[in-house]
Design goal:
two-stranded antiparallel ribbon, DNA polymerase, domain 1, binds xylulose-1,5-bisphosphate, 2 domains, Rossmann fold, alpha/beta, globular, 12% strand, binds magnesium ion, 8 strands
Length: 258
């Protein structure tokens, strides 16, 4: 019996990587007097590395103009990352990072139907907070039975730790949940935790293979046909079928009180 929907954040809820984190990293480089810039394609390559600080350190390893000692690089990455997160929040608050189609409707439908929701992300908690507040205000955490971020799960995706912590906090078995993911790091993380995983294709990973995923779609709006009362309705593609079946099962299940 499926009981909970687990959301990835970056790329799944909004195009945060291309329009948010990347832009904020570039502004942080400028703010720290560095001549570095990550264009859209370069940042796509860097997304192989999960975690903003880890991504910075990976990039610095190939730069002649980065600090030479490990300690100085770690310190610079920490300072750049702090600045980046502040600038990211400002971008999100200015509504420069649009939510992806269908996400808000599916989240609202879950609330209407009493379906438990959770967040499993390798992003810093402050970034999740900034993004979710734009849609739901300060009370947004009340919508989620578990919110697990980078600070809670130091081993980042594709490590399944973040999903295992979510399952533990929900008190559910993996077979009772589905995850929505967008990335080649996120899908194996959810799958390794035993969770049925649906892919919504973000810009950076439009062509990726996602062998372990149960189903794939372009976005959640086109994946679902919405009818009165926010109810998702059947449509033939695989994601639609899996999600519809999941939601119907969840609707029939007793409400889970975390
Ligand atoms: C998200 C990440 C994060 C973001 C930036 O992956 O890898 O590092 O790019 O956030 P996922 P931070 O969507 O799989 O959770 O700078 O806070 O790390
Ligand atoms: Mg993602």
């Amino acid at each position: 019996m499926l009981r909970a929907l687990i959301w990835d954040v970056d790329g799944t809820i909004a195009e945060t990587e291309r329009d948010g984190h990347r832009v904020a990293f570039n502004r942080a480089f400028e703010a720290h007097g560095l001549p570095w810039q990550w264009d859209v394609a370069t940042y796509g390559e860097l997304l192989r590395v999960a975690g903003g600080r880890e991504r910075l350190l990976h990039d610095m390893a190939g730069r002649a103009d980065a600090p030479s000692s490990d300690g100085a690089r770690v310190d610079l990455a920490r300072r750049l990352h702090e600045t980046k997160n502040v600038l990211y929040a400002a971008l999100v608050e200015a509504n420069d990072v649009a939510w992806r189609p269908g996400v808000r409707r599916l989240m609202d439908a879950c609330v209407d139907e009493g379906i438990v929701q959770a967040i499993a992300t390798t992003t810093s908690r402050a970034n999740v907070d900034a993004l979710m507040r734009t849609a739901f205000g300060n009370a947004w955490p009340q919508r989620f039975a578990a919110i697990v971020c980078a600070e809670d799960a130091p081993a980042k995706k594709p490590d399944p730790l973040v999903y295992r912590i979510v399952l533990a906090r929900l008190g559910l078995d993996a077979s009772e949940t589905i995850a929505i993911e967008d990335s080649p790091n996120g899908v194996p993380a959810a799958c390794a935790a035993g969770i049925t995983t649906l892919v919504t294709r973000s810009d950076y990973f439009r062509e990726a293979d996602f062998a372990g995923a149960a189903a794939r779609c372009e976005d959640l709006e086109s994946a679902l046909t919405w009818s009165g009362g926010n109810a998702p309705r059947v449509d033939p593609a695989t994601l639609r079928d899996v999600l519809r079946t999941s939601l119907e099962q969840m609707r029939r299940a007793p409400r889970h009180d975390p």
